[in-house]
């Protein structure tokens, strides 16, 4: 019985040392996906065999794919590129990328005065007095004034 316990202790100790060695040597490879400088590879898939040949780092295989082979692209990243336009910022084509809203296109959140509204100044959104409030008939106050002035007759 004593021999069996000694063997179990030695085996447990060996497994623990092996686990620590793997964690130490593995480094970031064990921690998850690579977050920057993700290398990509290109090769040729041989459909009959399911084998990828002519693999080379970058966007082209070592030599052209031939005889029904299909060019394939391999990478460790989750995305290949995010391009932003208009009111967005950020983007990228490798590693961790973020996108955001350009501050010029963000609506102000502090237009709290009773007659304030969000208005476009020509370059940014601002808070300004709302001069085009609807009337009871659904028209803004200026068009209602023009309409009643055109109906006024002198007599």
Structure described in brief:
This protein has 155 residues and is α+β, with helices and mostly antiparallel strands. The chain has helices at residues 2-26, 141-151, and strands at residues 40-46, 51-57, 70-75, 88-90, 99-101, 116-120, 125-129. The model is unreliable at 23-31 (pLDDT under 50).
Give helix % range. Answer: 10-25%
Q: Please write the string of helix (H) and strand (E) elements.
A: HEEEEEEEH
Overall shape: it is elongated
Average pLDDT for all residues: 73
Structural class: alpha+beta
Largest sheet: 3 strands, antiparallel
Number of DSSP strands? 7
Strand arrangement within the widest β-sheet reads: 2-1-3
Number of helices: 2
Taking pLDDT < 50 over at least 5 consecutive residues as the criterion, the unreliable ranges are 23-31
Termini, distance in Å? 124 Å
**Beta-strand proportion:** 15-25%
């Amino acid at each position: 019985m004593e021999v069996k316990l000694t063997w179990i202790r030695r085996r447990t100790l060996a497994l623990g040392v092996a686990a620590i060695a793997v964690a130490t040597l593995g480094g970031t490879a064990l921690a998850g996906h690579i977050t920057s400088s993700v290398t990509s590879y290109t090769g040729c898939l041989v459909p009959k065999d399911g084998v990828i040949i002519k693999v080379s780092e970058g966007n082209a295989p070592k030599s052209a794919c031939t005889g029904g082979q299909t060019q394939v692209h391999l990478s460790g990243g989750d995305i290949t590129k995010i391009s932003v336009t208009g009111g967005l910022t950020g983007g990228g084509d490798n590693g961790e990328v973020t996108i955001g809203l350009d501050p010029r296109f963000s609506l102000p959140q502090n237009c709290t005065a009773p007659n304030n509204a969000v208005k476009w100044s020509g370059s940014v959104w601002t808070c300004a007095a709302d001069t085009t409030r609807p009337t009871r008939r659904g028209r803004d106050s200026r068009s209602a004034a023009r309409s009643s002035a055109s109906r006024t007759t002198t007599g």
